[in-house]
Amino acid sequence: MTGVAKCIGSVSSIKEIWEKRIKKSKEDLQKEKRTKGAVGRLAQPWEDRIVLAKLRDRVVIEEGRVIFRIEKEEWKTIPPSLIHLPHIHEWQIHKAGLQKIPHFIASFENVTVLNLSRNAITDIPKEIGKLARLRELLVSYNRVQSLPKELGCCENLEKLDLAMNRDLDELPTELRNLKKLYHLDLSMNKFTAIPDCVVTLPALEWLDMGGNQLQSLPDNIHRMEKLHTLWLQRNQLEYLPDNISYMHRLDTLVLSNNKLRDIPSLMEGMSNLRFVNFRDNPLTFEMELPALNISDEDEDSQEMFGREFMHFYIQEARKRVYAVLNMHCVIR
Predict the structure, then answer these.
(1) Percent of the chain with pLDDT over 70
(2) Distances, alpha carbon 295 to alpha carbons 53, 234, 287, 292, 299, in Å
């Protein structure tokens, strides 16, 4: 009986020792976690301060404008710490590999310029519509595939550059609300037509849609009453609507590398047209201008050449049509 008691006592002692060790081990583990947590909480503010200091190094002041500038550095994302610098007027971020515009962009109420060209941005967040003071949005040479309708809320936007995003092929109708937009670059994308909202922009003066897949121009193109510069090179245009002749403020029209077969005779009356280019189009009539004394270095003469060619072509085309009609009358 005594031996059994001793055995039981030994087992109990061993069990108690193990329980104490397990308990201590758990306590040590919890203590270690609390210590790490405390250290982590202490380390986080220091990390934030380091990031914020790095961001501040990219802030400069030029002529009273606070500019956040990054160029040719690897910044795929913008740290949220930037929110602590709310007085920035301009973002100038180029060739940084930036993949997206952060949603906290809405916190920067004073921003007037977002120049994010030559990055890897795929979309523009709807929060951009909160930037009531935004005047310029430049996101050329990115990978933007669509625009949020909220961009139409940026009522002070004057310049929008979306060139060379490649897959962009439409715009939200809400952009018609951009009453102050005067400069729009949609070149080198996949538009097959000029969006209706573009035609109705009341302040538009400069439009580049070169390098797209335009097959025709809208018949109401003359509604762009203030437009003075129109770039349409490298498209698939086969004809021009007669109403283009009512664009009385148009002084620069580039139509090279299209599929035009004719030049509307009404364009002869476009007296403000200073520079026009019809080069590399399969025009019906082949003709050359009378010898002109044109210097390659004389820009005015080069511009005159395009305009003179247009007038000469229209006159010659009219003569040839009359000649054909007269021939038919004689035969009859």
Answers:
(1) 77
(2) 56, 26, 20, 9, 8
